[in-house]
Write a structure and sequence with these properties.
nine-stranded mixed beta sheet, 17 strands, Lyase, Ornithine Decarboxylase, Chain A, domain 1, binds pyridoxal-5'-phosphate
């Protein structure tokens, strides 16, 4: 590992496979019919997408671009779950005709249904607005207790939407989508959401083929719910309202599949004394592992580059290599002073990092695959030429 060019992400194949397999096994043990649909937005590295496809998973996409990417990777249209407000009309209609699971998110999409060919029945789903302030306030962030997504039962727009959909003789409303990442990712929150959609299905006499519970699960982590605990509790609640011998349960995990299979390896490039502390600058940035700048602790390990014993110092502040003053990561108290060339490896940083990394100051870092004890390069770091070549240089 010491010889890898840094900064770089390292994808651990074994952990990736274990996460997918564990989820699939738990689904199989709890539901007669289920679909694992991987949320592309969480990390769209083609290697990961390919692995999900190899294991018969679906691709959950939320834009025309993600939809096209899933097709490029090789997902059959019928193995795509298409969500979100960023669908194009063309891909929306193509997906429905091709047998994808398409969950309606916007009013425009309901209008587009008119353009589907007559003489054949097409199926669609609809996203229900999950207002945690109503359903489960203890699982919501203060400023995000309501959701921007889905059609609200409480405001009356859900009923309006299904009434409009039902005017189309060639459309069957066959699914409800209820994704809501909660603050706590708790089992109880899923139970309450399942109860809520069960009651809606009853109230509106919906004859459903699938229930899409969405993502938001913890990965394989100590002291957190296991996949089996999540799915057994979801099954228990859903079977009160649905015949699970017939109804398919769709899940859309992202974090649970990729969070723990990716590390980020960086090197110390400078050590300076300022006031009475040291600033240790690395060749990675907070942008690479915490693009929301919200984390207040990091799981990391330190790897010394030489055997020399350095002095203990009171405080070291580890900072990113960008020119942003606030690109600071963490503090080390009462430890040996780090030296240029030492490595800092940040653990479990696969979710919402690579897809959100900006092209700021330094372009995309390399990605290595760790498989059977060997490292191989699966994405070469972007250099200036890669950046420059995406522009129409003829017109410069
Ligand atoms: C519709 C939908 N499904 C699935 C996910 C994946 O969530 P997570 O990565 O927390 O599992 C998201 C995340 O925002 C989402 O918006």
């Amino acid at each position: 590992m010491i010889n890898l060019t840094t900064p770089a992400y390292v994808l651990n194949n074994e952990i990736l496979e274990k996460s997918i397999n564990d989820i699939k096994d738990s689904l199989f043990n709890n539901f007669k019919h289920s679909i694992l649909s991987y949320s592309l937005k969480t990390n769209s590295l083609p290697y990961i997408l390919n692995k999900v496809m190899e294991k018969n998973g679906y691709a959950e996409v939320v834009s025309k671009d993600e939809y096209e990417l899933a097709k490029l990777v090789g997902f059959d249209i019928s193995n795509i779950v298409y969500n979100g407000p960023l669908k194009s009309k063309e891909t929306f209609l193509e997906a429905i005709i091709g047998g994808a699971i398409v969950n309606i998110e916007t009013k425009n999409e309901i209008e587009w249904l008119r353009e589907l060919p007559r003489g054949k029945i097409f199926t669609i789903g609809i996203r229900v607005n999950i207002d945690l302030a109503v359903i489960s306030p203890e699982d919501s962030k203060l400023d995000e207790d309501y959701s921007r997504f889905g059609f609200s039962v409480e405001s009356g727009e859900f009923k309006e939407a299904i009434d409009k959909i039902n005017t189309h003789k060639n459309i069957k409303l066959s699914g409800l989508h209820a994704h809501r990442t909660t603050l706590t990712r708790s089992i109880l929150a899923y139970s309450k959401i399942c109860e809520y959609i069960g009651k809606i299905a009853n109230e509106y006499h919906l004859d459903l083929d699938y229930i899409d519970i969405g993502g938001g699960y913890y990965g394989i982590m100590e002291n957190k719910p296991t996949f089996n605990e999540y799915f057994s509790s979801i099954a228990k609640k859903l079977e009160l309202y649905f015949d699970l011998n017939k109804t398919t349960v769709v899940i859309e995990p992202g974090n649970a599949i990729v969070a723990s299979c990716l590390d980020f390896i960086t090197s110390v490039i400078d050590v300076k004394k300022i006031r009475d502390f040291h600033v240790v600058t690395i060749d990675g940035s907070r942008n690479d592992i915490d693009p929301f700048y919200k984390k207040n602790n990091y799981s990391y390990s330190l790897l010394s580059s030489n055997n020399a014993v350095s002095a203990f110092v009171n405080t070291q502040i580890v900072a990113g290599g960008t020119c942003l003053e606030y690109d600071k990561l963490f503090k080390i108290d009462n430890k040996q002073l780090l030296s240029v060339g030492d490595k800092i490896i940040f653990r479990s940083v696969g979710a919402y990092t690579m897809t959100l990394s900006p092209l700021f100051i330094r372009f995309f870092p390399s990605v290595y695959l760790l498989k059977d004890g060997q490292y191989s390069l699966i994405r070469k770091n972007w250099i200036a030429k890669d950046f420059f070549n995406i522009y129409d240089t003829v017109n410069l």
